[in-house]
Amino acid sequence: MKLFRPIAKTSVILLLVALSVSWMGVAKFSNKAHQMSISGTSNLHDWATSVENIQLQAEMELVNGFVSSVGTATLTAHVESIKSDKGTIMDNKTKEALKGDKHPLITYRLKQVDISEQKNKISLLKTEGSLRIAGVTKQVKMDVYARQLPNGDVEVWGGNDIKMSQYGMKAPTALLGSIKTGDDVKVTFSIILKN
């Protein structure tokens, strides 16, 4: 009987350690690193910009390396930080189109999510949320993928197509209107979240 107690105690400790490794509970995450780009077309050439300053705050639960649930999630992107390799003229056109003086932030708030497990410990998050651009808020659906990295960080990535006109924006033009950008733009992102 005396021998059984230490074995039982050890078994309970090992079980608790195993559970803590496989189940983190709901934890708060914020962005550690990111890549986000906005791309589109024009009658002259395709174009792309990068978003250098974002904040993503999310509450997630991970079980056995999978994202099993998401609580709140809010992303904020700073219009001033949207930069192009074409120089300041395009940056100013972008800021003007986004009405950056009056609305310096682009915000996304998660409303609901359905999660399914994929291969290689990847979770598919079918999300619905509100996206506010240039002072106009629209409901958007977006597929987001997530996976836990070996160091415990979480990578999330995805993309979405947006029409500028839906947010009351005029597609930028240049050279007295001879260069016109298309209404459709694509946002893509890859974000590393730390606990």
The strand count comes to: 11
Strand order of the largest sheet: 1-3-4-6-7-8-9-11
DSSP helix count? 2
The first-level CATH class is given as Mainly Beta
Give the terminus-to-terminus CA distance: 43 Å
Helix content bin: 10-25%
Q: How does CATH name the architecture?
A: Beta Barrel
- The helix/strand series, from N terminus to C terminus, equals HEEEEEHEEEEEE
User: Which structural class matches the secondary elements?
Assistant: mainly beta
Strand content: over 45%
Q: Tell me the overall shape.
A: elongated
Superfamily at the CATH H level?
Lipid/polyisoprenoid-binding, YceI-like
- Radius of gyration, CA atoms, in whole angstroms: 22 Å
Mean residue pLDDT: 85
Characterization of the model:
With 195 residues, the protein is mainly beta. The protein has one domain (23-194): Lipid/polyisoprenoid-binding, YceI-like (Lipocalin, Beta Barrel), CATH 2.40.128. It contains 2 helices and 11 strands, in the order αβββββαββββββ. The chain has helices spanning 4-22, 88-97, and strands at residues 23-42, 47-51, 54-63, 66-78, 82-84, 105-117, 122-133, 136-148, 154-163, 173-174, 179-194. An 8-stranded antiparallel β-barrel has the order 1-3-4-6-7-8-9-11. A hairpin with a 4-residue loop joins strand 10 (173-174) and strand 11 (179-194). It is elongated and about 50 Å long.
